[in-house]
Amino acid sequence: MSISILESGLYTITSLSGEVTRTPEGTYRLSTLGYAYTGAGSGLGPEEVFVTINEEQNREWIFTSFQNQGRDLYAIELADRSKAWTTENPNPEEQSRINTEPLRTTKSLPPQATPPQLFQVRRVLMD
Hints:
Layout: E1 2-3, E2 9-13, E3 16-22, E4 28-32, E5 37-40, E6 47-52, E7 61-65, E8 73-78, E9 84-87, E10 98-101, E11 119-123
Antiparallel strand pairs: 1-7, 2-3, 2-11, 3-4, 5-6, 6-10, 7-8, 8-11, 9-10
């Protein structure tokens, strides 16, 4: 498990396509579906991830690699690592609401994340 460095560009995240932009601080801004920013609701429980045109609602993210569990698998965490994307649907090929919850990992070496918190992130290669 390690924080990964992705180049800015177009990526698919499981069944969602969008742009990943690396910030000077080493975090990432995600945009998709014509929306420039990605946010997460506020509160102590699960918070729904949403897209928005409002910059003040933007949240920055980090990608934590779990390559030991499969090719291109990442947990997508808030920049402060307090919570990670979590899907409600265990089938990653189907659309599902995405919430944020604390990242759950095993105590094994290397640690493993739970499947609802792993997303396949692949760069879209342009011809």
